[in-house]
Amino acid sequence: MAEVVLSAVEKRFGEVAAVAGVDLTVRDREFVILVGPSGCGKTTTLRMIAGLEDVTGGDISIGGKSVTHLPPKDRDIAMVFQSYALYPHMTVYRNMAFSLQLRRMAKTEIDRRVREAAEILGLTELLKRKPRALSGGQRQRVAVGAALCRQAGVLLFDEPLSNLDAKLRVHMRTELKRLHQSVKSTMIYVTHDQVEAMTMGDRIVIMDKGKICQVATPLEAYRTPANRFVAGFIGTPPMNFFDGELRGEGAGLEVVLDGGLTLPVPRPRLTGASGRQVTLGIRPEHIQLGGEGNGSRVKVPATIDVVEPLGNEAIVTARCAAGLLQIETELTGDLKPGNPVPLLFDTAQVHLFDRQTERAL
User: Pairing mode, if any, of strands 77-80 and 154-158?
Assistant: First the structure.
């Protein structure tokens, strides 16, 4: 049992609150991703779980036992750092076995663990090599293997793929997800890359300014963001936002955006909202290029500003009465800067946020 529970955990550096009252439960054998921009407190939170940073306030427990004041070696954790942290003069085998040798474990048990981890990670043929003879991806797998050999209840990853090229990152994402299915450890993974978070985690923890904004499955965070920050952070390209004011009631509720553009809002549960200052959000994939408006699809005239080709598709930045927006569409010869285009907004897919609190309505 390796459930990790953080209760009102804080970390202050002088007057600066790097982590401000975090409450989080990571279930046994769950793969949880801490994601957010630089400086949001995700790495500091991970280091407090590992015991590498002292806790200013609150409590951390692992497996039902408080570890807040225990040293790292007594916490039943293993950590994989952003840098590979391999000994260059040692072979892959010795790098993976080193922490076990320090614990004076029996040679037969060390050999069993190393070869078992090497088999899982595809390193069996590389055990006699030294790090300088390995690629970046192979070195990262050795670092993961060294942590696996510990057979700890909790595996912690601090942006382990950030030093790899784009193609290798995609490959290693798959490897780490497969690894979680093979081992029986709780895994907590820190990244600033929302694509990694969306594709790997059972649940993701979105952080900003030292606080947790939302804990959800990747699909829940995408479909029902808790606030404007989450809505803008999750999804590529990011959600389009426009400021406006709600008017009307019930089925007649609409939002008048800055610039005069008016869109119906299918939110009959929002009663007494007329006059409320809001931000409307709509994802690029919910805006269609061309076609006739009908039902929830509202036609909006726009002009193309920038076209970014992506093979068969393109990201188009266009300008409408409410401002600039981005859409995803099929790449055609008609997509040229300055050309007028009709856009269809799927108003059934819009998100509304209170402009003052930024919380979802």
Answer: parallel
d(CA 300, CA 150): 59
Distance CA(21)–CA(29), nearest Å, equals 24
Q: Which two tokens stand for residue 324?
A: 């600039």
In sequence order, which residues have a C-beta less than 8 Å from that of residue 124 and are 6 or more positions away? Answer: 115, 118
End-to-end CA distance of the chain: 38
Write the CB contacts of 272 (distance below 8 Å, at least 6 apart in sequence).
249
Inform me whether the pLDDT recorded for 268 exceeds 60.
Answer: no
What distance in Å separates the CA atoms of residue 143 and residue 301, rounded to the nearest whole number?
54
Q: Rounded to an integer, what distance in angstroms lies between the CA atom of residue 152 and that of residue 186?
A: 9
Q: Which long-range contacts (CB under 8 A, 24 or more apart) does 271-276 make?
A: 273/246, 273/249, 273/361, 274/246, 274/247, 274/248, 274/249, 275/245, 275/246, 275/247, 276/245, 276/246, 276/354
Q: How much is the average pLDDT of 170-190?
A: 86
pLDDT, tens digit (0-9, with 9 covering 90-100), for 231-265: 999 998 999 999 999 988 777 788 999 888 888 88
Residue 204 has pLDDT above 60, yes or no: yes
The Cα diameter of the chain in Å comes to 76
Q: How far apart are CA 358 and CA 284, in angstroms?
A: 20
What's the CA gap between 222 and 38, in Å, rounded?
21
DSSP string, 84-107: ----TTS-HHHHHHHHHHHTT--H
Put simply, whether the predicted model's pTM sits higher than 0.70 gets the answer yes
Tokens of 95: 């790098």
Alpha carbons 312 and 273: distance in angstroms, whole number: 42
Contact between residue 192 and residue 9 where contact means Cβ atoms under 8 Å apart: no
d(CA 322, CA 242): 7
Report the distance separating Cα 33 and Cα 283, nearest Å: 23
Give 184's pLDDT tier (boundaries 50, 70, 90).
confident
- DSSP letters of 224-263? S-SBHHHHHHSSSSPPEEEEEEEES-GGG-EEEETTS-EE
